[in-house]
Amino acid sequence: MAIFTCRHAPAAVEGVCYGRSNVPLKMAPGPAADLVVERLGAVEPRAIWSSPLARARDLAEQIAHRLGVPMHADARLSEIDFGLWEGLPYSEIERRDRARFLRWQADWEFLPAPGGESLHQLQDRVEAWYKGRQSELDGADVLVVSHAGPIRALRAHVLGTLFEEELRTDVPYLVPEGLDAGRVARGSVRRISTKPFV
């Protein structure tokens, strides 16, 4: 089984803390799906798996329609939950909850947002999704439409890299990347980002 991952279109908001929140996007699902299908080239996934969050799910539905394959949503492919900070501007979080925000900024790899989940909880649920699908999808190429956090967790699990290293890699928008038994099957996994994973 080759897993192809694809991140949704970029959000049309800046300076906002969002993981599970719905946010407007810079490209509509239809044109975004056309671009992804074009970039897939000769790759023909037999199924699409998606986060249930609208920015990923709407794109996955459009891709599945164009390819004539089934689409399945699974909450384990959702972006991280930022809890009480969801949907708030970072400036407002710092004003309202300065002490906790500064602690989180200093240790975001290990500390969850208040009422949210940690990165390692995200990693555990993504790995559980992969292990649960592995036998039924054996031999089939699948496309996973998701978010930066889950895609990095999936890369680490499939490629055998450290999740902590993947947190500092780039996840381009609307670019399919293939992961196949410890190697990058299509495209390249660039290691250029030093910012927190969102």
Architecture per CATH nomenclature, i.e. the level-2 architecture: 3-Layer(aba) Sandwich
Strand arrangement, major sheet? 3-2-4-1-5-6
Give a short account of the largest sheet.
6 strands, mixed
Number of helices in the DSSP assignment: 7
- Beta-strand proportion: 5-15%
Low-confidence parts? 182-198
From N to C, what is the helix and strand string? EHEHEHHHEHHEE
At the first level of CATH, the class is: Alpha Beta
Q: Tell how many strands the DSSP assignment holds.
A: 6
CATH homologous superfamily? Phosphoglycerate mutase-like
What do these coordinates show?
This protein is α/β, with parallel strands linked by helices and 198 residues long. The protein has a single domain, classed as Rossmann fold, CATH 3.40.50.1240. The protein is built from seven helices and six strands. It has helices at residues 29-40, 54-67, 90-96, 98-106, 119-134, 148-159, 163-166, and strands at 3-7, 47-50, 71-73, 142-146, 177-180, 183-186. A six-stranded mixed sheet has the order 3-2-4-1-5-6, with helices on both faces. α1 (29-40) crosses α2 (54-67) and α5 (119-134) crosses α6 (148-159). The two termini are 28 Å apart.
